[in-house]
Design a protein that fits this description.
- Chain A: This is Protein arginine N-methyltransferase domain-containing protein.
- Chain A: GO terms for molecular function: histone methyltransferase activity; protein-arginine N-methyltransferase activity.
- Chain A: Keywords: Methyltransferase, Nucleus, S-adenosyl-L-methionine, Transferase.
- Chain A: It is found in: Nucleus.
- Chain A: It holds the Pfam family PRMT_C.
- The complex is a heterodimer.
- Chain A has helices spanning about 30-35, 40-50, 50-65, 65-70, 85-90, 105-115, 155-165, 190-195, 210-215; strands at about 75, 95-100, 120-125, 140-145, 165-175, 175-185, 220, 230-240, 250-255, 260-275, 280-285, 295-305, 310-320, 330-340, 345-350.
- By secondary structure, chain A is of the alpha/beta class.
- Chain A folds into two domains: about 20-145, Rossmann fold; about 180-350, Distorted Sandwich (Hnrnp arginine n-methyltransferase1), CATH 2.70.160.
- In chain A, the strands form three sheets. In chain A, strands 6, 7, 8, 10, 11 and 12 form a six-stranded antiparallel β-sheet that branches. In chain A, strands 3-2-1-4-5 form a five-stranded parallel β-sheet, sandwiched between helices.
- Chain B has 19 helices and eleven strands.
- Chain B starts with 5 loop residues before the first helix and ends in a 38-residue tail after the last strand.
- Chain B is about 35% helix and about 10% strand.
- In chain B, the strands form four sheets. A five-stranded parallel β-sheet of chain B has the order 7-6-5-8-9, sandwiched between helices. A two-stranded antiparallel ribbon of chain B has the order 1-2.
- Chain B has helices at about 5-20, 40-45, 70-80, 85-95, 95-110, 125-130, 140-145, 160-165, 180-190, 205-215, 240-260, 265-275, 275-285, 290, 305-315, 325-340, 395-405, 435, 445-455; strands at about 60, 65-70, 220-225, 235-240, 295-300, 320-325, 360, 380-385, 410-415, 420-425, 470-480.
- By secondary structure, chain B is of the alpha/beta class.
- Classes of the chains: A alpha/beta, B alpha/beta.
- At the A-B interface, α1, α2, α5, α6 and α9 of A face α9, α11, α12, α15 and α16 of B.
Chain lengths: ~350, ~525
């Protein structure tokens, strides 16, 4: 109610000038920036920080293995708010270089100062592929680079680049092991909601969209009760040793039904391990584990499979980074079922954008 | 066409048409002779034409009475005997399907008057005309002559040439094939250095922005080809000083990215599933027959076309659905077709019988003058779901106002016509301030401060819990249908808000809109 300084101008105020654009400066963001510089948008960081499975695991890895960090130089790839760097500094690292390419880097700098770690942590704003490090080698590379479906956003390549450029011989990469898994689920209700939805929209046939909608993998939480088959390991990667090209792969799978049911979709998820810890530490993003912000990746099948207990769904999954846009992932899925009640064979393509 | 001598019948009809055409345009509608079939009859009878039947695929030459079994043969003949190279002219003038269609009708109409289609010289008879015909001169002048709606109507009854000349070319009207975005991007890349990204809400990839800033540093002249997110219609090569070019590039890039973002189906599903939103539009459209029945409707930013579908169902006589995103325009067309509601652009197009009323036009509403076969101020109802976050985010309102001023009849209806922005203050609990103060034992409160301080410039879209609202609500701005301009107003809260909590970080809700100058 009160406005002692008279700062609030109302539109009735004669001093008010509708053409006065001084409030908005030239370097302010437009909606274009808002749409595209979203890593600078704090909400994402809040979500990731609030993901207890993720953040607490990293915290445990670092605080419970101080021997790894004593007198060591650390490189934090894609530092964001700088939380991992702060953990490392507190655990006794000699020095930490935190690299972040978005506007968040400015915030990270302020945070480091506010917490009194300016002499231990150096924040570098820029792309890993373009910055200069004040040192020629680091002892440890730490990063939280995993995207949906593990490989979406393809930050893995950035970590490998940093590893090849700056990591000492026998240096430590955290995390160093990651695996991708596949399983099959019954998902009639949700598929109805997301895909069959287009068949009848307020009485109109919009099914032509269905085909395209099917090609977009869905990031969502799967209930473990929906799982119909075993979970198959598709691929394991050793980040301390692998080559960038290894992130694209083709792997066969054999999923065996554990009960009579229908299969509407395949589900992909990953786990991550830090093998250099005193005690093996890690976490999984699977439907049987505690929820994370990664959820799971759902790939709806064109067909609805009727599968009997003991029958096998075989196939092959090929994953590659999109040629035009390396941050996007192209998935090709071949599957076939030769069962008592259902015989099907198909190839489907998916694009994660 | 039942006659013993088709040729005689044909030439007689042409002579009679000649009589009509010899007079001023106003008299075109009068049918002076009962025997002469007017346009209405033609439209009705064309239903009998079956594209597939071989008896219809018999093509009459433009100039003489020769008939040919194939378009190619006909065109070869005209090229050889009458100095009329249809295919060459089409290529030279860059005529699309409709342009070529008009060319055929134009030439036929000129021949009917014994007039040279090229130089306009009037001959005494058909034979004289054939003797007169010469090598093409000054072909560009023809373009202006072709720019006439009347040539969209078949001049000659049952002119099978009109439905077959385009046979060799693949699916010009085939909206079913989704636009190959990658190919489009590849093509565009070859014109400009700018990489056109879409759907990049989750990445740190700033390559688009980076290239822009690089070009800003260039001095002197740079060349730009404005390849079409507006369907390739703007193809010009300019040599200009770099600064205005860069601005244009930036605007185009923003537009590409903006429209690109609507290409993904998730957002459309979200909007359609928003029952509050979609049900409201549905109610308004379906429950107001007095407004919609037989109306000409324009849907600005149609997306999947759901509002247009409602309008068609409500009895509109014509629905013009405008969508700038290429992919969505193709999808909207397919959906209209699948629901039997699509209206092809050419009346009575033989091979695509449709009884629908919806026509989908791809492009920005501000740039549609060339392609739209609509008289200014002739639309009865303008419908649009244009509202963005905080109402005015995305600035689509200006497009709607443009459409209103250009296409809407005086007294026409706009749906919706009133929009109100409210403001209320929310307390600390509605912010993430408490969270940032202690993150795993670290003080990240500078982020919280940044968030709050920046709230004026980067509004956050979120759901605020009712119990976090700590003041009354006040009306901030009401937009009526006759808003004359969209104005830059820093909307400070008036004194009307009453608070029970002295801490009000959320009260400074700034919405800024652009002034039209």
């Amino acid at each position: 109610m009160s406005d002692p300084d008279g700062h609030d101008k109302s539109i009735d105020d004669p001093a008010f000038d509708p053409d006065d654009v001084s409030i908005v400066q030239d370097d302010d963001k437009t909606s274009a920036d808002y749409y595209f510089d979203s890593y600078s948008h704090f909400g994402i960081h809040e979500e990731m920080l609030k993901d207890v499975v993720r953040t607490k695991t990293y915290q445990n890895v670092i605080y419970q293995n101080k021997f790894l960090f004593k007198n060591k130089v650390v490189l934090d790839v894609g530092a964001g708010t700088g939380i991992l760097s702060l953990f490392c500094a507190k655990a006794g690292a000699e020095h930490v270089y935190a690299v972040e390419c978005s506007q968040m880097a400015d915030m990270a700098k302020e945070i480091v100062e506010a917490n009194g770690y300016s002499n231990v942590i150096t924040v570098l704003k820029g792309k890993v592929e373009e910055i200069e490090l004040p040192v020629s080698k680091v002892d440890i590379i730490i990063s939280e680079w995993m995207g949906y479906f593990l490989l979406f956003e393809n930050m893995l390549n950035t970590v490998l680049y940093a590893r090849d450029k700056w990591l000492v011989e026998d240096g430590v990469v955290l995390p160093d092991k990651t695996s991708l898994y596949l399983t099959a689920i019954e998902d009639a209700e949700y598929k109805d909601d997301k895909i069959e939805f287009w068949n009848n929209v307020y009485g109109f046939d919009m099914s032509c969209i269905k085909k395209q909608a099917l090609m977009e993998p869905l990031v969502d939480t799967v209930d473990q009760n929906q799982i119909v088959t075993n979970c198959q390991l598709l691929k394991t990667m050793d980040i301390s040793k692998m080559a960038p090209g290894d992130a694209s792969f083709s792997a066969p799978f054999k999923l065996v039904a554990e009960r009579d049911d229908y299969i509407h979709a395949l589900v992909a998820y990953f786990d991550v391990s830090f093998t250099k810890c005193h005690k093996l530490t890690g976490f999984s993003t699977g439907p049987r584990s505690r929820a994370t912000h990664w959820k799971q990746t759902v790939l709806y099948l064109d067909d609805v499979l009727t599968i009997c207990e003991g029958e096998t769904l075989v196939g092959n999954m090929t994953v590659a980074q999109n040629k035009k846009n390396p941050r996007d992932v192209d998935i090709m899925l071949k599957y076939s079922l030769n069962g008592r009640r259902c015989v099907v064979s198909r190839i489907q393509h998916y694009k994660m954008r | 066409m039942a006659s013993n001598d088709p040729q005689y019948q044909e030439s007689r009809r042409i002579e009679l048409m000649d009589h009509e055409f010899g007079v001023e345009k106003e008299l075109e509608e009068e049918s002076e002779d009962e025997d002469v079939e007017g346009w209405d009859d033609w439209e009705a009878e064309n239903d009998d034409v079956d594209e597939g039947e071989s008896s219809d695929t018999d093509f009459l030459c433009f100039f003489c009475h020769s008939r040919y079994g194939s378009c190619d043969a006909l065109f070869d003949h005209c090229s050889l005997s009458h100095h009329f190279d249809f295919r060459g002219i089409r290529t030279e003038l860059g005529l699309d399907f409709y342009g070529a269609f008009k060319l055929i009708n134009y030439v036929r109409s000129q021949v009917a008057e014994h007039r040279c289609w090229n130089c306009g010289f009037a001959c005494q008879s058909n034979q004289d005309l054939q003797n007169h015909l010469h090598e093409t001169v000054n072909i560009e002048a023809i373009n202006a002559l072709l720019d006439d709606e009347r040539y969209l109507k078949p001049f000659m009854k049952d002119d099978s040439l009109l439905y077959n000349f385009g046979e060799d070319e693949e699916g010009e009207d085939d909206y079913a094939a989704p636009i190959d975005k990658e190919e489009l991007i590849r093509d565009l890349k070859s014109y400009e250095d700018i990489s056109i990204d879409d759907d990049h809400t989750d990445t740190c990839d700033k390559s688009g922005m980076k290239v822009l800033s690089a070009s800003k540093d260039k001095n002197g002249v740079s060349s730009v080809e404005h390849a079409g997110s507006t369907g390739g219609k703007l193809k010009e090569t300019h040599l200009r000083a770099s600064f205005p070019t860069v601005i244009a590039k930036e605007i185009k890039n923003v537009n590409d990215n903006y429209f690109g973002a609507y290409s993904s189906f998730g957002i459309h599903r979200e909007m359609i599933s928003d029952k509050v939103r979609t049900d409201a539009y549905r109610q308004v459209i379906l429950k107001n027959p007095s407004l919609l029945k037989n109306a000409v409707v324009m849907d600005v930013g149609c997306g999947t076309g759901i509002l247009s579908l409602f309008a068609a169902r409500a009895g509109a006589s014509r629905v013009i659905a405008i969508e700038a995103s290429e992919k969505m325009a193709a999808v909207a067309t397919q959906i209209a077709m699948d629901n039997g509601l699509w209206q092809s652009k050419i009346p009575n197009e033989g091979f695509n019988q449709s009884t629908g009323v919806i026509e989908v036009v791809q492009g920005m509403v501000e740039e549609l003058d060339k392609s739209l076969q609509v008289q200014p101020q002739s639309v009865d109802v303008l419908v649009s779901e244009w509202m963005g976050y905080c109402l005015l985010y995305e600035s689509m309102l200006s497009s709607v106002l443009f459409a209103r001023d250009r296409w809407l009849k005086p007294g026409g209806a706009i749906l919706p016509d009133t929009a109100t922005i409210f403001v209320a203050g929310f307390g600390r609990g509605g912010t993430s301030l408490p969270f940032w103060e202690n993150v795993y034992g670290f003080n990240m409160s500078c982020i919280g401060k940044e968030l709050v301080g920046d709230a004026a410039q980067t509004p956050i879209v979120d759901i605020v819990d009712n119990h976090d609202i700590v003041t009354s609500s006040a009306v901030l701005q009401v937009l009526q249908r006759n808003a004359s301009r969209v104005v830059y107003i820093p909307l400070h809260t008036k004194n009307a808000l009453v608070t029970n909590n002295p801490y009000l970080p959320g009260a400074n809700c700034h919405c800024v809109r652009k002034t039209d100058r």
